[in-house]
């Protein structure tokens, strides 16, 4: 947290740019532009233990056994205690064996499924009218949109028979529901509309803000929530204060004694596009490897090479360091002091157990030295001084201490959302349907990109582990037996996977966990080459195809 705060402060107060982003930019972008505006930002701060208090749980877009094992523990425990657990996923994940119902939808059909469930709940008068009248607005417009849905067509698009949809509605009727949402939703095309559909269901069932109920948006990257709280995003100041709100901006102008532009900065994909076009001249990369984490890595590399000046600050001599004009060796978490904020709002502090190797320094110390040379009034000199400034200026972190753990201030707007007594009504989102979209006949398969529990993120750090390398993971692509037989593929054969943006080669592994017309491509392995298959375009762009699935064709 301390380093994220100082990094964005240098950008805004000393360099004068809002072009700042972090490795959790996808979730941050959705939360800041959608959920935070609609619900006060609290959807991510439900304690995970509350999942056991929910009356029903719906899991969408996540394979927790691999991406977030700690969440899977709570989900399994709730299911064992009798809570109805509905898993929505094209793949047969490990959580399916604990599920009351597995809705094996076609890839990217989540939006249509959610709309259909809302329409059927409304048709059966299975909604909480008292809760809606007290807390929400726009219900009549929302239900008018639902009336235009063709549930039979939704069944065909989603791959679920009408009987399955009705059975799911019977499971959900009259219950306070926990919606557990992963990157499979946030990184798919129409993800923001799908989040709207989830919020609609949470409102109409009276689930939002109830104990155990509501929306749990899961942060896949460590300190993803903390980086956003510290303002390390293009459109928010520390404390998640909107950059374009005059009062919020003037508060931070007074705090830092500078003028801050009201124009939101560029997110990570826009930064690469600006470098491509020559609009951007320099880039400072700290603890991120865009050559592995971003789509179209060759395009990203070419864009970075066009820059006049590149600084890379990292703990590893990775691919992007080789493009740097200046490389600054940072310290790992075990070699410095600081804090992380987890997705429950728990602030976890840590202290060094070994000194940094060689010339490496804690990242806050490097930034402090840099800030002094850029004209800062005086150096902080200690991480506690940065922490004290955060406590003083970011109200939700007022209880932040220097050891052990603490929690975000429960009275702050970022704390767990309590809908009753909210000053503003929450609006239902408009009904958006994609049932009439045509599949690309030239690319008949749907590739699903996903994580394995062996690797973190894009694999930049975990691939450096000898123990993980000993597992000899080759990233075999999962193809169902029916498709393999038609393509005359045997287990272990090499297959070329080609999309409109690039191609990769992987060995074929036999799997009954994916259905016909689908394949699963593990991330992080083979230099994370799976990112060649998807488009770099901004996820907020209506033309974006998403970063989680894409249309592909296969060749032996």
What does this structure look like?
With 556 residues, the protein is α/β, with parallel strands linked by helices. 33% of the residues lie in helices and 16% in strands. It has 20 helices and 21 strands. The strands form six sheets. It has a six-stranded mixed barrel with strand order 16-20-17-19-18-21. The protein has a five-stranded parallel β-sheet with strand order 3-2-1-5-6. The protein has a three-stranded parallel β-sheet with strand order 9-10-11, with no helix packed on it. Helix 14 (268-277) packs across helix 16 (297-305). Residues 36-44 and 412-422 have low confidence and may be disordered.
Count of beta strands: 21
> CA-to-CA gap between the ends?
48 Å
Unreliable stretches: 36-44, 412-422
Shape: globular
Beta-strand percentage range: 15-25%
- Biggest sheet architecture: 6 strands, mixed, barrel
């Amino acid at each position: 947290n301390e380093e994220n705060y100082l990094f964005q402060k240098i950008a805004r107060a000393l360099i004068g740019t809002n072009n700042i982003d972090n490795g959790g930019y996808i979730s941050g972008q959705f939360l800041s532009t959608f959920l935070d505006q609609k619900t006060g930002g609290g959807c991510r701060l439900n304690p995970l233990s509350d999942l056991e208090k929910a009356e029903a749980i719906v899991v969408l877009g996540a394979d927790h056994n691999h991406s977030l094992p700690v969440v899977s523990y709570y989900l399994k425990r709730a299911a064992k205690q009798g809570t109805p657990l509905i898993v929505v996923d094209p793949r047969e994940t490990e959580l399916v064996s604990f599920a009351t119902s597995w809705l094996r939808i076609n890839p990217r059909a989540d939006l249509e499924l959610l709309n259909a469930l809302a329409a059927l709940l409304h048709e059966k008068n299975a909604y909480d009218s008292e809760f809606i009248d007290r807390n929400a607005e726009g219900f009549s417009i929302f239900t008018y949109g639902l009336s235009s849905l063709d549930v039979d067509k939704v069944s065909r698009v989603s791959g679920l028979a009408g009987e399955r949809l009705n059975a799911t509605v019977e499971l959900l009727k009259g219950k306070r529901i926990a919606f557990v949402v992963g990157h499979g939703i946030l990184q798919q095309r129409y993800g923001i509309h799908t989040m709207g559909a989830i919020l609609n269901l949470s409102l109409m069932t009276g689930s939002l803000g109830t104990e155990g109920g509501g929306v749990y948006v899961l942060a896949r990257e460590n300190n993803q929530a903390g980086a956003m709280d510290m303002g390390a995003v293009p459109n928010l100041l520390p404390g998640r204060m909107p950059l374009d709100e005059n009062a919020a901006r003037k508060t931070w102008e007074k705090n830092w004694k500078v003028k801050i532009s009201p124009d939101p900065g560029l997110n990570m994909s826009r930064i690469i596009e600006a470098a491509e076009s020559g609009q951007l001249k320099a880039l400072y990369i700290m603890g991120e490897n865009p050559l592995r984490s971003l789509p179209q890595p060759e395009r990203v590399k070419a864009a970075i090479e066009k820059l006049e000046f590149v600084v890379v600050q990292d703990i590893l001599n990775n691919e992007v360091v080789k493009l740097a004009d200046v490389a600054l060796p940072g310290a790992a978490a075990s070699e410095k002091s600081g804090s992380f904020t987890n997705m429950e709002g728990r602030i976890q502090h840590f202290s060094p157990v070994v000194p940094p190797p060689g010339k490496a320094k804690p990242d806050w110390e490097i930034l402090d030295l840099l800030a002094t040379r850029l004209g800062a009034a005086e150096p902080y000199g200690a991480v506690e001084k940065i922490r004290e400034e955060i406590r003083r200026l970011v109200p939700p972190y007022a209880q932040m201490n220097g050891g052990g753990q603490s929690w975000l201030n429960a009275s702050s707007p970022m704390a767990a959302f309590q809908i009753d007594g909210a000053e503003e009504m929450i609006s239902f989102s408009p009904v958006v349907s994609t049932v009439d979209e045509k599949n690309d006949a030239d690319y008949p398969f749907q590739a699903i990109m996903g994580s394995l529990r062996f690797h973190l993120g894009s694999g930049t750090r975990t691939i450096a582990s000898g123990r993980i390398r000993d597992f000899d993971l080759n990233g075999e692509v999962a193809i169902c037996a029916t498709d393999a037989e038609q393509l005359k593929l045997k287990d272990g054969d090499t297959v070329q996977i080609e999309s409109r943006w690039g191609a990769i080669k992987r060995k074929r592994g036999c799997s009954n966990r994916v259905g016909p017309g689908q394949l699963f491509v593990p991330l992080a392995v083979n230099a994370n080459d799976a990112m060649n298959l998807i488009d770099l375009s901004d996820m907020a762009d209506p033309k974006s195809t998403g970063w989680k699935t894409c249309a592909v064709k296969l060749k032996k």
